[in-house]
Write a structure and sequence with these properties.
Blueprint (H helix, E strand, L loop, with lengths): L3 E6 L5 E6 L33 E2 L25 E7 L4 E7 L2 E5 L7 H10 L7 E6 L4 H4 L2 H4 L7 E5 L11 E5 L4 E2 L2 E5 L8 E5 L4 E3 L4 E3 L5 E3 L8 H14 L3 E3 L11 H8 L1
Parallel strand pairs: 6-7, 7-8, 8-9, 13-16
Antiparallel strand pairs: 1-2, 1-3, 2-4, 4-5, 5-6, 10-11, 11-12, 12-13, 14-15
Helix pairs in contact: 4-5
């Protein structure tokens, strides 16, 4: 069965992506997410702003700017992975929902708590449902918000790459992962270079890639490699980009450079190799 992506653009605050189809296999600005008044992937608005919900697929609209898919986790089939982009200003976090399971990828800087909790609310899930927090690497703009979330996400296990986990401190259970492992039904891809323990997550059923800073967006729908200003080993980082390109993802989510890219992702990654 072919899959189909429905994207709800929510302006500066974030973007919700729902992938429908059969499962083929298993320094923070604190921009908070708010409900845009739709029945689906509602998202976020900056403080004082208003959500401008719209959809790229008119066949899926409900007349109020959102999609018709139900966000009730109990009604969300296990084969459908949902991705919510949480804008934290210059860096991004992500909420992923599959059935009754919830994961957060990256936590921004300290002070990101409210925006990330709002991202959960936008997906109609509660903090108690979060079982997984995946940190793509140990930099403070990706792992710095963890401490502020520990009280809310007490049921979660924190995962990080083996080479980075030693510098991460948390009262939650810390588990190291490496290339070839699996968390939340997504494969862990070792993508070192930006940091020695950088990891990405890839879902084979939907083609969703969450890559941390192994790749970046250019803010205009394009993709770039790791930022050389903050990447000590660019040769290894470039090899990691080639590893991600070989996966041929259909959605690329990353730490910096705008919301996820959903058009011609495989080709854009291949062009970076």
């Amino acid at each position: 069965m072919t899959r189909r992506s429905v994207i709800t653009d929510l302006g500066a605050g974030g973007i919700g992506i729902i992938l429908l189809g059969a499962c083929a296999g298993s320094s923070d600005s604190g921009a908070a997410s708010t409900d845009a008044g739709t029945t689906s992937s509602t998202g976020s608005t900056p403080p004082g702003g208003s959500a401008a919900g719209s959809t790229t697929d008119p066949e899926e609209t409900n007349g109020s700017g959102g999609t018709t898919s139900d966000q009730d986790p109990e009604a969300n089939p296990a084969g459908r992975l949902q991705l919510q982009h949480v804008s934290l200003g210059f860096v991004s976090a992500y909420v992923l929902v599959r059935g009754n399971e919830v994961a957060i990828v990256d936590t921004g800087t300290s002070g990101s708590r409210d925006a990330i909790l709002a991202g959960l609310d936008a997906m109609s899930v509660t903090p108690a449902m979060v079982g997984h927090i995946v940190l793509t690497h140990n930099h403070g703009d990706h792992a710095g918000g963890l401490a502020g979330l520990e009280g809310d996400l007490s049921n979660a296990t924190v995962y990080a790459g083996a080479a980075d986990i030693g510098s991460i401190r948390s009262s939650l259970t810390l588990t190291e992962v490496d290339d070839g492992d699996e968390v939340f039904g997504m494969g862990i891809i070792g993508t070192p270079g930006h940091t020695p323990g950088s990891i990405s997550l890839f879902d084979t059923a939907t083609g969703i890639l969450v890559a941390g800073d192994a790749i970046n967006g250019d803010g205009q729908g394009g993709l770039t490699g790791a930022n050389p200003d903050f990447t000590p080993d660019m040769a290894t980082a470039n090899t990691s980009v080639a590893t991600l390109a070989a996966l041929m993802p259909s959605v690329a989510a990353f730490g910096h450079g705008g919301p996820p890219v959903t058009d011609d992702v495989a080709a854009k990654l291949a062009a970076l190799v």
